[in-house]
Input
Amino acid sequence: MNIKQVNRTFMMIIAPFFGMLLWMLISTLTIQLSDSAIKLPDLQVWNDKNSQIMQGLDDAGSTVHFTVDTIEKSSKLYNQITDVTSSIVQTASAQAKRPETIYNRRITSKLGTPMDTVHSDKITAELYRIHQSTYSGYALKVKLKDPQAMKMTLGKDKAGGSETTMQAVKRYGAVAGVNAGGFADGSGKRYPLSTTMLNGSYVGGFEASYKDLTFVGLDKKGGLIGGKFHSQAQLDALSPSFGATFVPQLLSRGIKLTIPEKWSKSPLRAPRTVVGNYKDDQLLFMVIDGYNESGSSGATLAELQQKMINLGIQDAYNMDGGGSSSLIFKGKVINSPSDGQLRPLPTHFLFFK
Output
């Protein structure tokens, strides 16, 4: 084989490798050129996008300022609306209380200026002096804002027990106290007369009314209830909380009731304790002074009946009187007990702050 043949043969052998190398060089150059060609259009797109983004940020900034301004204006408007609404509520509340205030002012004007007052979120109690040509005493006007501000207690907390109204007031920490129902003595003990209720339960059971005896007390909402009851169901229907019994009832719905002859004359005059209610459910207790129980001092039931009418009372009941009449206010004995001292009793009405 000559040199030409050797060269030809060698060229044939390396030709594929040389072709492959040449292809690779060309491909690389094409890719680079392609990359360069891509980069130029992408840069323009980026500039366009960047301009759009910047414009968007400017628009967003304007929107944020607008939103903040809108929120501030809305907040101011909300506060104004709230203030106006609050003012309307306060005005409405004041207007709603106005009739009550006017009514209270009217009934209070008939009593005069209070000697003393107890005021809390549970009760308002006002003490007044009563001066009439034939008798004198005291009135206690009570507004119960909470039914629990008034309770009835048994003497020493047991049937047959007795204690003065002052002792009951001190023992319970009450701010005021008034004697309650009548009683009967037996075996050295003092028992409540007829139907008596304490904390929603009967003390000694229910007893139908007889001989003009009248039950008087408060229902579970703090309203005055009373009258003659010939069955337990009649009384239970009024949801009584507590109450005691004596005689007679003086007024019913602002109308005078006939006073039994026995009670209108025997005794004619005496120290008295009566209770009544106004149209707005305020209570009025009157405790009238007298020197004794002989009938020569104190008030007649007819006089107190008329006095209650004049004061605007709706329902009124006579409680135990004579030496039993007791009025305690802020730790002091207000009336002048005809016995010369307070009488131990089986039932008392107490008032709490």
